Hints:
Chain A is an all-beta fold. Chain A has no helices and 12 strands.
Amino acid sequence: GDSVTQMEGPVTLSEEAFLTINCTYTATGYPSLFWYVQYPGEGLQLLLKATKADDKGSNKGFEATYRKETTSFHLEKGSVQVSDSAVYFCALIDTGTASKLTFGTGTRLQVTL
Amino acid sequence: EPEVTQTPSHQVTQMGQEVILRCVPISNHLYFYWYRQILGQKVEFLVSFYNNEISEKSEIFDDQFSVERPDGSNFTLKIRSTKLEDSAMYFCASSDRRVSEQYFGPGTRLTVT
């Protein structure tokens, strides 16, 4: 079946540091890939997406590139802020089989001054 | 900006009681979903709904669960006889196409005592 694997958290960074959160996936079909963010006490917000190989999704300074050869969709940001502290979820929709989102376990990011 | 809304934000119920969680999806969306997140665990798919019928459901979505779109705006999840292990955050989501980004509500925290 489909699955998403994310790096274990928490990730603790100083403000303005570079962020990478690793995400790899397995899918039986050709998936669309997503990053969602959950701020404390809130629901899930779509951060960015990519629907085909080599696509780069970007939003709010975050980027992720759909790498089919390595089945990865790593999230990056060049300079994090305290306000980026949240839980980040990598997810996929396996377009050939279903419309449900399959999520990774989430990675908590804590940014300090 | 259109958003998904959910009520109540927090529901406390006794084991064996029935609960109904309510959602108002984005108005022009056609696909509706329920997910749940047990504290500290990953977000899990429960059910998807399109054209007034269930299009997919997970193993979690057994006979105690049901969904309904009682009118043109609401989408509900009913749990007939709640168990302690049903305690979780329940998220409603909607999308305008079968394979596209899904927009989530803020969630209903269900506590079964």
